[in-house]
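Fold this complex.
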Amino acid sequence: MTEPAGEAQVVAVGLEAPASPRPSFAAIFEAEFDYVYNTLRRFGVREADAIDQVQEVFIVVNQLLPDYDASRPIRPWLVAIAYRVAGRYRSLSRNVREVLDVTPAEPTDTAPLADETIERDQARALALEAIDQIDLPRRTVFVLAEIDEVPIPEIAEALGIPVNTAYSRLRLAREDFESAVRRLRATRQHASHVKRGAT
Amino acid sequence: MTDELPPELQRIVAAERSRPGAPGDAKDIARARLATLLGPAAGLGSTSQPGGPPVAHGARGTGTAGAASSAAGAVSTGAVGLAKLAGAFVLGGTMTAGALTVARAPNPPRPVAQLAQVAQVASGDSSAAAPPVLLPDPAWTAIPAAPSLTASAISATPSAPSTPSATSHPSSVTTSDHADHDLASERILLERARSALARGDGSQALAALDQHARSYKTGQLAEEREALSIQALLAVDRQDEATGRAARFRAAYPHSVFLPMIDEMLR
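Structure:
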């Protein structure tokens, strides 16, 4: 899969114009499974439930594929579906409780010994936890804009919201994210100090 | 902070952006489940040559790693997983919410007499259980029209009900294409119910099962539907209805593989 580059990356599926052939369900599954998986994790789906929820997404994809406009990028479309699936998942009190019961990443007291991999893993854990603290509608814009680097107009179109609303959500989500990172770091530093004190 | 994240946070986001994909054999498991649920029309039986044109992401970011490249290596394990999972449908699989697990043999051809019995079970339940009617999920209506994600598209899933009446022979079963389509649609509904049960959402499960009963009263998966219905009724604390339905199920399917599980649930 060749990644599109630059701002003019949003092209029709396939090369023929003007009618873009619609990718098959199997092609979408093979190409986008990991993307859907990670997106659902960013939307607060626990790892233990992720396969079930990915399955839910692709069942919907299969149902709605005949209506998919192949001239449009697939990922925002998938995110719109994943957003609904994750929203339903999180609406259940059982899952809300479990989502909030995130196991915190290891305190950073291994920093002096950390190699690049550990640092990256810790950064990912921190990012996922911070993202989980953003309100879901804002988070959807944040994930699409900051993680997937989808242009705001595309996000607005995919989510069916005005462009200004998308910008506003992104701005608020960035503030939420920054606050969450700061808060989580403070919590981990405190936990690290307590742990050192106990030993 | 409005235009972009500070550099330090950008580094954190960049790390998240490079998050690897699903762990282990998650993709194989999902592929096998979906192949079972959706049938051959989904084209998931083999991963070596997925049909259709390539998929354009529509974003600069990589998001995930190795999505397409994992396909080739998954061919053999995917086929094995498919074989393993083909017979473990509806009540089987890896439910995450503690739902009971019962593996069953691959669907055998059901004699007409058995289909009629299923019809009796279903019709007998329709008045007693009065399960909720499945309405289009309002949440889906908020998905924009650009990709045309509408509630009607969701609710229209079983577009070809298999039988117009409880007593008529489902002629579609003998027409392979039509039967495949019906079976795939049936599976989708029952999988929706199974997933709802796995989430602990008995009401949603009943809604999906009710839709199945209305669209595929004597469908190929009616037995599974009835077993799931008992489970769903228990999930919403409708014990008496579950007990009555279980009695009718026992009469209709005295040798069902689901009976031990049902007995266990009612104990």
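Chain A has a mean pLDDT of 79.
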